[in-house]
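Q: Could you write out the predicted structure for this multi-component system? I'm mainly interested in how the pieces pack against one another.
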Amino acid sequence: MLEKIDLNVTMDKKTCKKAMEEAGARLSVLQRECKAAGIPVMIVFEGMGAAGKGTQINHLIQYLDPRGFDVYACNRSTEDEQLRPFLWRYWTKTPAKGRIAVFDRSWYRSVLVDRFDGLVPENQVSNAYQDILCFERQLTDDGTVIIKFFLYIDKKEQKKRFRKLSESKETAWRVTPEDRERNRHFARYQQITEEMLEHTDTEYCHWTIVEAVNREYAAMKIVSAVADRLAWELEARKTDQAAPQNRGNYSPSGDRFKNGVLSGIDLSKSLTEAEYKEKLKHLQARLEQLHSELYRLRIPVVLGFEGWDAGGKGGAIKRLTSHLDPRGYRVCPTSAANDIEKVHHYLWRFWNNVPKGGHIAIFDRTWYGRVMVERIEGFCTEAEWKRAYQEINEMEAHMANSGTVVLKFWLQIDKDEQERRFKDRQANPAKQWKITDEDWRNRAKWDVYEEAVNEMLVRTSTTYAPWIVVEGNDKHYARVKVLQTVVDALEKKIREVKEK
Amino acid sequence: MLEKIDLNVTMDKKTCKKAMEEAGARLSVLQRECKAAGIPVMIVFEGMGAAGKGTQINHLIQYLDPRGFDVYACNRSTEDEQLRPFLWRYWTKTPAKGRIAVFDRSWYRSVLVDRFDGLVPENQVSNAYQDILCFERQLTDDGTVIIKFFLYIDKKEQKKRFRKLSESKETAWRVTPEDRERNRHFARYQQITEEMLEHTDTEYCHWTIVEAVNREYAAMKIVSAVADRLAWELEARKTDQAAPQNRGNYSPSGDRFKNGVLSGIDLSKSLTEAEYKEKLKHLQARLEQLHSELYRLRIPVVLGFEGWDAGGKGGAIKRLTSHLDPRGYRVCPTSAANDIEKVHHYLWRFWNNVPKGGHIAIFDRTWYGRVMVERIEGFCTEAEWKRAYQEINEMEAHMANSGTVVLKFWLQIDKDEQERRFKDRQANPAKQWKITDEDWRNRAKWDVYEEAVNEMLVRTSTTYAPWIVVEGNDKHYARVKVLQTVVDALEKKIREVKEK
């Protein structure tokens, strides 16, 4: 999830300040209403070292009535705490009805810092996840609202902040040797974090990832998110929307995906004809070799292709398969579900095409239709597409756990490029069949699609099944990037299998 | 869960046959209705070897229209199946809307037989559980009804059946060397089974444990259970009770707990005064030694006491603590929740009393109030007590995982004995305070309580936190049994810790 976060997100200072003040004013009122309604609230701050958890908590609580909240700094557990089950210190701090408990670090210690520092042995990690999930489910079932923030900065920014803190005597003590260690091994810490987010971003208890480089922006996002969540909860309790069984119905304001991954893509990337031919030839030959290695090692491969209409999926798939042994791969095109498919679970038809060891299954459009076209066109209910993110992650995790390489490509073009291509197709008798009225209709919904795609990319890009956003305005560049990514991933997997 | 199953359950032949025919007739109609309603149904048969899965499936399907179901025998996976993620073979067999799929063994292979036979390595087991839970949740969320039976026989019965099968040439092939191996290591297989039941008896997908020694009784129970479940589902779909968020609302007919654990207890067990004194002295001395070992090894201990009013909890606790160092234990009496406790999660107050390493916490009445008095008196909603079984199991698992010894005692007396004791108390000025009108009121509800207790004992007796039913009519016997059980459990734990 983290690699799809745009840390350069900005907002002009004035707008940001205004939004912050507006949200803060709402929050003050909402706190009183929650108190009256007897809602217990837990707000969790986790994040990279020096991401500004303390500062952000300060921003937040200035809008709260101090008689109604407690802040708990959860440092390394004391000797006394270590003598008890690790959830004990958090259970005893769960807020009474109507109160707010703010946690500066939390029960996530055990799967983040404490795990990294070696205080929680690796064979205990999976138990700890289980315990955390139970803890949050039990509390939310009982009516507690849990709001979780992960404050994210990258290695460079962290190093810069550590350096700045170290320069002054007043603040130098705040940078511990462990902090430096975590910065040195940032990639490992980030991987642990990714795993944590994947395991614990549940439908009843979402993570909000906060781009914490810009402090004002982060503060505004946090205060707004808390206010939005509480407002929803209060409204929901008027009907039975907030009953335990409906707890999955809340989703953070759609707005947060308006300026998402796709807006940060550099579509000017391109290759000359000569570069393209040279690279293509080399990569296709390499892929051919790898394909037979895959076969010998019985490694299954799943490649999913999604993208805008006319984004170049077909062309990329063609370059991918042209040198492959046709007995060892299969292209599975996905169109609207047929009668048989309609009377099964939406994932059933894809399960039927799961490749066996040594084979490559290439999906031209995929199960992600659930959270794009089905979501937008209303072919499934809101509850259905909302739970689909988790279902899809679980399916891909199951494949990856059984040794499958899973890669997903999003072929990105801009709106102008799409128009050019649509018009080309209409003008070319051999390609006219590729363009229908529906394509133009979908195009009209570009913005809603973009929002849905942004959400999809963040919520389903996992360490075990990453999304690769391909800059597709230049077809040559796009095809080479796809091939290169596949070759790299297969080489890595083959190396891992051989090392075992 | 298994040790609380009464394999000697009987029913007279005629009643049983009549119940079977009635359920079968209902089932035929229900199948048609489910087809019309487009409900996909999966029926899973798991069980000990030779428990009669095949026979029972035959009984069941004779009531079904053969055009509407498929039976899948799930043997060891083929080479082709092994080349894919293990859920693939089951996903592809999920039934279309309106159809029934019957599984003779199932996806549970991977955590039962295949695990026992070493085909699934131990470090993959926890992943397999995760995958199974996701699989069932995804399908039930989508409207599939999954009904799971576990056919249980004990070691002796299994051996007998194997012997009988081996005697004839026609059936001898059915007993494989693996079967014999599993019989030889029955305890280990049973433990694996217990673990499976604990992990996968979810609110949306219950296990029905079938006492399979008496085949007619088993058949009747299975056919009735399927009919009941389908009838509920059809009814529920008329409102929104069957929506994914309400999937936990179904619970198997309460009747199944009417003749439960408690009816099989031998209350005539007793000790003479001399035996009692001798044993008590010895056990108390031993417990004192163990207490200091606990302290040195930092092992926490949780002992929970429940039982009928006047069942002897107080007396047993007194004998337990009389020789212990008071700095190392604490008795936590549980009465109705106070104002502070009421505004927290019902488990919060018990979390506050979780003992630290080396200490013993003795709970006089416990968190099980949720599924007894709170259930029966309507102090919590049906949804709340129904999900409490899982919540409690999770809490105890968390304690056990962190090294805590968890034991729960149910002090059982019969109704006459209770009356005698109540009257004794009323007649004794020193004990009059112990008996109130409420006790008499509760006594009037003996039968509903008994059913609730039976359900509780089955659903929350786990390998990591077992229930011990104590025959309590003779106080001497009861006290010694409690002490002996605690001493044995502590000795075992101390041995384990030392061996590590």
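A: Regarding packing and overall arrangement: The two ends of chain B are 28 Å apart (CA to CA).
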